[in-house]
Design goal:
Elements (H helix, E strand, L loop, with lengths): L2 E2 L2 H12 L9 H5 L9 E3 L2 E6 L6 E7 L2 E6 L6 E5 L6 E6 L6 E7 L2 E6 L4 E6 L5 E6 L7 E3 L4 E4 L4 E5 L6 E6 L1 E2 L2 E2 L3 E7 L2 E6 L4 E5 L6 E6 L1 H5 L10 E7 L4 E6 L4 E5 L5
Length: 270
């Protein structure tokens, strides 16, 4: 199990999340009179196992499909989609995006991989067995994280909104606004659908939030600040960004951009 955080940890996580809150458009008076929401549970992550991770990988997407680990990475001229060996951290096979694209989140859909780009409004579909590109699609705005719930693709774009897309046509089906204590939360990055919830990194906060996919309300917080602080990286952009759930083994993994390690952590309590 993951240990329940103490009061100090809870307060610190709350402050960190509020740093990503969107401005209150209705003014301070409206916010001050809003009803106080129930305290959101915070859990400090406990590491169960540690594996190597490629330090050249600017991780943007991480997921399992049929027991195999896949990763998409960013940076112009360095962005790839690849299958990774869990025990060694090395790529089994990979395909490189055109240098003009900055790769972002990715997820599996059937026998394919769907991946995003940051500011080009273009995504790609790859054959999962061969990593051959088999299609392209467009979307408005930026692309950050991507996951799927078995019915829809779920896309983050750095705003408080998550978009649900048709996995075949990529048409938008609906949106939710992610909120914490009634406040919209921005900078939602890498996504993973786990046991009926959407898990999302908050960029530059070393926290993972557990989101109700129907309402957008944050149900809980996984605090990874202690874990991230122990990772030997100095680049301020080498942040926590990678969540993968293996539904075959029931194990949850996290990593970060250019991190030397990938961690199995205990699943959140419910």
């Amino acid at each position: 199990m993951i240990r329940r955080a103490g009061r100090g940890i809870i307060a610190g996580a709350a402050l960190a999340i509020m740093a990503a809150a969107a401005p209150v458009v209705s003014g301070p008076a409206h916010f001050q009179t809003a009803p106080v929401a129930a305290e959101v549970p915070v859990e400090a992550a406990r590491i169960l196992a540690t594996y190597p991770h490629d330090t050249s990988a600017f991780t943007q997407g991480l997921f399992f499909a049929d027991g195999a680990l896949f990763e998409s990475t960013g940076q112009h001229g360095e962005s790839v989609v690849r299958e990774v060996d869990l025990t060694s951290g090395k790529a089994k096979r990979e395909v490189r995006l055109d240098a003009r694209y900055f790769g972002e989140g990715s997820t599996a859909w059937g026998d394919t991989i769907v991946s995003l780009t940051w500011t080009h409004g273009k995504g790609f579909r790859w054959d999962r067995k061969t990593l051959r590109k088999i299609g392209e699609f467009s979307y408005p705005g930026e692309g950050w994280g991507l996951t799927q719930d078995g019915t829809s693709l779920i896309l983050s774009d750095g705003t408080p909104e998550l978009r649900f897309l048709d996995p075949v046509t990529f048409a938008e089906q609906r949106r939710i606004t992610v909120t914490y204590q009634g406040r919209p939360i921005r900078r939602l990055n890498e996504l993973e659908y786990v046991r009926g919830e959407i898990l999302a990194n908050i960029w530059h906060q070393d926290l993972i939030v557990r989101i109700d996919p129907a309402t957008g309300v944050i149900r809980g917080i996984l605090d990874l600040r202690e874990l991230a602080a122990a990772v030997p990286v100095t680049d301020p952009e080498a942040v926590l960004n990678g969540i993968a759930y293996d539904d075959r083994s029931g194990k949850l993994y996290v990593t970060g951009k250019n991190w030397p390690s990938l961690f199995e952590i205990a699943l959140p309590t419910r």
